[in-house]
Amino acid sequence: MGASSVRYLLCAALPVAAAGAWDFVFAKEQLPRRREQVRRAAPALAVCAAAVAGYALGQKLLDAWCISGSARYGGSRLQALNHVFAALEEAFCGLVKLLGYTEGALLFSVHGLASVGAFLMLGVSAVLLVRGLRANRARFGALVLVMSAGLTLFTFVLVEGLYLNRYWIPVMTLGAPVMAACLTAEGNSMLRRLGALALCGVVVLSSAVQIRDSMREPEITPARYEAAQQVLDSGLTFGYATFWNANVLTELTDGRVEVVAMRVSEQGVPVLDSWLEIEENTGENRPEQEVFLLLSPQEREQLQTFLDRCGAQEETLADGSILARVSSQHVFFEAMASDGNAV
What we know:
- 60% of the residues lie in helices and 8% in strands.
- It is of the alpha/beta class.
- α1 crosses α5, α3 crosses α5 (139-158) and α4 (110-134) packs across α5 (139-158).
- The longest helix has 31 residues, at 35-65.
- The radius of gyration is 25 Å and the shape is globular.
- It starts with 5 loop residues before the first helix and ends in a 5-residue tail after the last helix.
């Protein structure tokens, strides 16, 4: 999965470390420190050491030994200040969408009820969290959740080019047991019932919506199977497509067709993505072989000038996607280089 996958471990460990450090430094109890506080603070030192070692390994050693750019997240840039408020809005929207909110949903519908429940869940959780921070029993768990949300928000808002949903996942994973602990310790019976109802309601409704939508519009359809078979019948074995289309075609052909992920640049030229790809596949490693681009109608429109330059022959597949055949990989790379967008 690449060295950058270490960030998922850090997503889980950093909030615990931050909560341990906060509890150790700002706890009301004065010296001598309790053993429990020392145990909670210990992960902070371990995570800091792991972070330094991970940076050295990913940014220095792996780039020298293995695939260049394997730890690309370590080189992320700071967000422009004028984008910070837009990033805050996007962060909040990402959280409520993860809770089950759907834009434009009818109020009296499953989507609408899930959307109302998402905001209700957020409000009740905030109240329980504040009360949990004041109590001793659930305090440390609540503090971990606060640190997780805070670190997630800080990272997303200040660092350029990160996508949020997967970074909210540790918050959501921690949220359920912390809320359960807060509910157990909660003395207000009305608030306890409301919290339990909101939690169960959001989970049930959101799950029902996801299952229904996946049944109505599945990722892999008979038309996609037929399209994959058309690619196999064409004799093509190597090509390019956007990330998820590349993965689906590789899976449906059981690896007999190898597809490299790409994206479409603002200039209307394909740019190959080295993330999770074999390094040799992102270069011109089979110059004389005929290759293809698997495109959606929108992507085809964006790449029209490029396809004309390649002399690509187009065919519409069963699922509506476009198979653009290029006479050789060399022609494909030459067309990219002519626009100054070579990989």
